[in-house]
């Protein structure tokens, strides 16, 4: 972006793998409602201020682009992932009463009480995975050893899916969330395979129900007659498997990298483990790598932002990471303050579409920190921060690997 060329081209480049794009501050100050050009060549609108983004995300009129919307494509023609605008959960209504009905059925299984009940199992699995990493020797890739397998175990345990299928889940997630790595044909084939897998899993749960979420939703439908349809069950399972492990797996790696990038942060947690809870939320706020495109909203009617009227049919990209560093809301926003409270960051969104699994994600991140600090207090990055490598094209943002030593 320059004075001669006001169009912003996403994703914005950064100076380092954990650094925010320098343009964020300029955009918030001078151009908070900016025109953006995507790799596809399509254009949309980028918001970077906290209040603007929170207001739009909280507006019940608008939601993520649906398959029938003529929304801006992210990836070029022929690429798969979200560029197809096909959506993975076609039966799940993205707005209105249908969406709220779905959240009422599924959301009750993500309450703080239910997540607390899962915590002992998370702790045991984290310890097992870290022990295996230590046994294999230093250095190690913390993302591969802990960051990926732990969330897979948690979400599979919740849904009742076999954790040994984790490599298949990883491939399917990558195919749906990466906008540059796969073709439309590859993404379509992955979708078909995932549909078959989830349909067979649901059939198995009908035949032999257990205590998992899918079995409970099936029983709820039988008992009340107002539960989720078979298609909604299938697409719920698919959506939760992808969202429940891909984002958290990447966040675990980024969290550890961010805390070890400045050793004083890690040392402060060693000295006072009671800071873990606020530290997790500060990491979530400070993450500059939530994805290079932000959260999308499709405007079904005209909408005013900061005096500008955005016409219906506009695709808006909400820069959550940029909003989380808005100096109008956060004191010293570019500084990681592990004691920051309150911390009203927008990492999990806002309004009716805020992340259902945020309590689960926070708990997983807290458990990872608690166990790592206890078992590996000498943990450190095995490479300079500048040598950490981002995953290109992944809409949720992440690092390819997190090399550590102890």
UniProtKB/TrEMBL annotation:
<keyword id="KW-0349">Heme</keyword>
<dbReference type="InterPro" id="IPR036396">
    <property type="entry name" value="Cyt_P450_sf"/>
</dbReference>
<keyword id="KW-0479">Metal-binding</keyword>
<dbReference type="InterPro" id="IPR017972">
    <property type="entry name" value="Cyt_P450_CS"/>
</dbReference>
<dbReference type="GO" id="GO:0016705">
    <property type="term" value="F:oxidoreductase activity, acting on paired donors, with incorporation or reduction of molecular oxygen"/>
</dbReference>
<dbReference type="Pfam" id="PF00067">
    <property type="entry name" value="p450"/>
</dbReference>
<dbReference type="GO" id="GO:0020037">
    <property type="term" value="F:heme binding"/>
</dbReference>
<dbReference type="InterPro" id="IPR002397">
    <property type="entry name" value="Cyt_P450_B"/>
</dbReference>
<dbReference type="InterPro" id="IPR001128">
    <property type="entry name" value="Cyt_P450"/>
</dbReference>
<dbReference type="GO" id="GO:0005506">
    <property type="term" value="F:iron ion binding"/>
</dbReference>
<dbReference type="GO" id="GO:0004497">
    <property type="term" value="F:monooxygenase activity"/>
</dbReference>
<keyword id="KW-0560">Oxidoreductase</keyword>
<feature type="region of interest" description="Disordered">
    <location>
        <begin position="1"/>
        <end position="23"/>
    </location>
</feature>
<keyword id="KW-0503">Monooxygenase</keyword>
<keyword id="KW-0408">Iron</keyword>
<feature type="region of interest" description="Disordered">
    <location>
        <begin position="61"/>
        <end position="99"/>
    </location>
</feature>
<comment type="similarity">
    <text>Belongs to the cytochrome P450 family.</text>
</comment>
<protein>
    <submittedName>
        <fullName>Putative monooxgenase</fullName>
    </submittedName>
</protein>
<feature type="compositionally biased region" description="Polar residues">
    <location>
        <begin position="82"/>
        <end position="97"/>
    </location>
</feature>
């Amino acid at each position: 972006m320059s004075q001669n060329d006001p169009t912003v081209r996403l994703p914005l480049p950064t100076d380092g793998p954990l650094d925010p794009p320098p343009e964020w501050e300029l955009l918030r100050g001078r151009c908070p409602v900016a025109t953006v050009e995507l790799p596809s060549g399509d254009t949309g609108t980028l918001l970077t201020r906290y209040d603007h983004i929170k207001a739009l995300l909280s507006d019940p009129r608008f939601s993520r682009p649906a398959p029938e919307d003529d929304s801006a494509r992210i990836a070029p023609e022929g690429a798969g992932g979200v560029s197809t605008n096909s959506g993975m959960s076609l039966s799940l209504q993205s707005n209105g009463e249908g969406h709220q009905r779905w959240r009422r059925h599924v959301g009750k299984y993500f309450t703080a009480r239910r997540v607390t009940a899962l915590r002992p199992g998370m702790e045991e699995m984290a310890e097992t995975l870290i022990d295996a990493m230590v046994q294999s020797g230093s250095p190690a890739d913390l993302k591969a050893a802990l960051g990926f397998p732990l969330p897979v175990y948690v979400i599979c345990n919740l849904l009742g899916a076999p954790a040994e299928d984790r490599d298949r889940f990883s491939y399917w997630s990558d195919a749906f969330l990466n906008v540059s790595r796969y073709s439309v044909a590859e993404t379509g084939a992955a979708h078909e395979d995932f549909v078959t897998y989830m349909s067979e899993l649901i059939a198995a749960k009908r035949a032999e129900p257990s205590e998992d979420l899918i079995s409970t939703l099936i029983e709820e439908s039988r008992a009340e007659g107002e539960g989720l349809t078979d298609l909604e069950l299938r697409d719920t399972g698919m959506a939760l498997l992808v969202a429940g492990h891909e984002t958290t797996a990447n966040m675990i790696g980024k969290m550890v990298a961010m805390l070890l990038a400045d050793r004083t942060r890690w040392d402060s947690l060693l000295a006072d483990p009671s800071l873990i809870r606020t530290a997790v939320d500060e990491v979530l706020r400070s993450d500059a790598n939530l994805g290079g495109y932000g959260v999308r909203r499709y405007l079904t009617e005209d909408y005013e932002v900061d005096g500008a009227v955005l016409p219906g049919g506009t695709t808006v990209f909400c820069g959550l990471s940029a909003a989380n560093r808005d100096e109008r809301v956060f004191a010293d926003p570019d500084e990681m303050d592990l004691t920051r409270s309150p911390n009203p960051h927008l990492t999990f969104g806002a309004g009716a579409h805020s992340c259902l699994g945020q309590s689960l994600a926070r708990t997983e991140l807290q458990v990872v920190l608690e166990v790592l600090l206890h078992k590996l207090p000498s943990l450190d990055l095995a490479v300079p921060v500048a040598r950490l490598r981002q995953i290109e094209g992944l809409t949720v943002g992440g690092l390819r690997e997190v090399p550590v030593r102890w």
